[in-house]
Automatic annotation (TrEMBL):
Domain called Hydantoinase A/oxoprolinase: residue spans: 205-490
Pfam families: Hydant_A_C (PF19278), Hydant_A_N (PF05378), Hydantoinase_A (PF01968)
Domain Acetophenone carboxylase-like C-terminal: residue ranges: 506-673
The organism's place on the tree of life at top rank: Bacteria
InterPro entries: ACX-like_C, Hydant_A_N, Hydantoinase_A, Oxoprolinase-like
Protein name: Hydantoinase/oxoprolinase family protein
Domain Hydantoinase/oxoprolinase N-terminal intervals: 7-183
Amino acid sequence: MPDPHIRLAVDIGGTFVDAMELDTRTNQVRFRKASTTPARPADGVLNAIAELGTDLSEVELFIHGTTLGLNAVLERRGGATGIITNEGFRDIFLLGRGNVPADHMYDFTYQRPESLVKRRYTAGVVGRLDYKGRVVRELDPGSVREAARTLVEEQGVRSIAICFLHSFLDPSHEREAARIIHEAYPDVSLSLSTDIVREYREYERTSTTVLEAYIRPIFERYVDELETGLAERGFAGRFLIMRSGGGSMTSTVAKTSPTHTVLSGPAGGIVGAAYLAGALGRDNMLTFDIGGTSLDACVIERGSAVAAYESQLEHFPLLIPAYDIRTIGAGGGSIAWLDRGLLKVGPRSAGADPGPVCYGRGGTEPTVTDAAVVLGYIDPDRFLGGNMGLQADAARQALTEKVAEPLGLTAEAAAAGVVDVLLARTVGAVRQITVERGHDPRVFSLLAFGGAGPLLAPLLAREMGIREVVVPFAPSGFSAWGMLSADIVDDFARTVMATLDDADLDELETLYKGVEADALASLTDQGVAPADTVLERQLELRYLGQEHSLMVTVGRELRPDAIRTAFEELHHARYGHTMGNRLQILNLRVRGIGRTTRPTLGEPAPGDGNPERALRGHRTAYDVATRSMVPFAVYDRDALAPGDRFTGPALVDEGTSTTVVPSGQRVEVDAHGYLLVTLEV
């Protein structure tokens, strides 16, 4: 039997599952799609692999991005979860911060969404640490057993989050409570806050632990089911799952840390974008990922994606590393509807079942995809490479009945309105991560991917004056491609809470070495060789008295003057000023990285600069520049070659996505076969 030489990446989206295969011997890439199967997500993954026809016995690495944990929370499908904390503090999670979302600031009827954990599913136990981690009262084993009995036997809880006050300083009470509960109820899933995040802030740490406990049972079942299905088909390689903050982890680790996967799908595209930014020599890049249900945008600055160490799932905070992604409910399946005579698009989505009207699966509400068909952007006979024909007449009828006739418009005008509304929402999302944070979007390149990304990106660039749109190979599967370049990563943190001037540097060094030992052990357990291991040190800092903090990378030698200089450079770049205040260290962090072999960018044979060989004819479509239906030249992406140039109005069709180039823009194919869309000079 030949040595395994195939890498396989699979990304589950709201509408389709994307599967991409890389042959490490030839560097050849193949890509296929299958419909998402919400009721049984693993089936969609296996179906996508079957579409590829990959021999799983030849696969050395399978890497997966999934939003299963995210969906479990959004749809309230997690396991019955309980909380055990200190006596007198059982309401920490229910009370939260008492804040009201900004969009409900003046809504006096606002009510918080139902909690993931009912109050009767929370219990307090005897035992307490103070703010320095000193024992105020020893943990009482009897009260732990009674709390567990009440939750498991009387309330039917199957998963328990254990989170004690100040345990990030000393995890011994949590570990002892877990030992006692496991002895009595070995089948109950236990999540300890100190195994997940060793940081201050009780509510945020409790929230993170509760979310992990809530999604762990369903995530474990899913991964077990997928592992079984892959093994039955001959797979015996390594199984990795993407992290929300970039990098990957083994499936074994993922089952014990499922919260780190909640944004793993979008993370794949950002990992790929950061890799491309370096490979293409473009340090500043905006990712623009539009799939079936959402739009995700992120800033790549100086070749690295902007990351955060706190995210939010619904209104629940998560203390996990995650890319700073701006997400809105705007995708190909977003439903167009009228609200008191005003046209709106999203956030509701037709999803994969029933999907847009043109799919012919029972959908009745018009979507962005239906509008794109009416506007001539999508060829109904070539959708998904001709494997899935679309019902153009049904799309037109739904758009006419639901939108056009009530507004007194033609079907084309209504469809153009849908694109206009979607574009306006998109501009707002991109402005939030650029202009509102001191970035000029005009100096960025816009990387368009996802099924609908190339359709809208040139229109967005025209609207915002963005200098260049980059459309990679197989953009609808770019997130899966990005996963192929993901390192194995694990993040560790410890709370310090000291001013930089007063901090004992020897104690900091000792703490760093202990955390680095944990990171190294994690990478070793995941099969990373010492030669491939990199440990990065960071400090989370803020001006004393401020709320918000910044992350600064530090060297092996801890020099306060160099640390302050790095912080102030970053603070000035982000906020436009610096201050004379002392600096406060909140957390020290170590990112353990296991380097993997990345796919190389192909360089197809150059063409003669004449794209006529790729011209497949003309099709009438909507030109946003002239606000009219005009003939568009239609090019076959596969037949284009490096050096080819042409101007809009044009459509570049590659089966799984279409790049729309309006009048006033031009296209050049670069050395890697990527499309570069720019404004005509």
